[in-house]
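Appendix B, record 7
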Amino acid sequence: MPKENISASVIKRLPRYYRFLAELKKQNVLHISSRQLAENMGLTASQIRHDLNCFGGFGQQGYGYVVSDLYCEIGKIIGVNQCNPTILIGAGNLGKAIASHINFDNKGFKLIGIFDSDTNLKGKKIGEFEIMHTDVLKDFCKSEKPVAAVLCIPKAAAADMADTLIEYGIQAFWNFSHYDLKINHSDVIVENVHLGDSIMTLSYGLNNIRK
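Structure tokens (predicted):
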């Protein structure tokens, strides 16, 4: 199936498959059927087969999937070994938490720099990284050529910062700014993350389970 015809919902399930298969590998599970996968993941066997068939299938009828092989294949599809050079903009509490606790290296990215517009943060360290002022972004991007950016900045600053970073060569954004980036560039990828939406979804579940 051509990549442009694969639905967003299928793509969003790939990391879940990858994570679940990693757990199976740790448990030394050698192979698993689509039915067993479905039972454990709360999906249907036909949905799993459809999802994986978008990328070639990988299973054997009557045998199922070889866990280690499927894990590797989904990792290749996601691109977990690509190490795309990435910068983080915004070294406040959220930016610090992401830089400190997200392992970019095994998810397809490599964090190479952290920036903030607050001069009081310049020179301070988050892990191995020394915070740089956003004034040097242009020169840094020119020399280091990052292709992705994590935005942990206020909503009001997000659109202008995104436009600037696109000029500097950024092709993808992991956006925590609470601003839904609507960028008129077909070759730019945006993943908007709204943590508040997630907890409100939990609230909905609680409110409805009680009824």
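Remarks on this record: The mean pLDDT is 91. The first strand starts at residue 31 and ends at 32.
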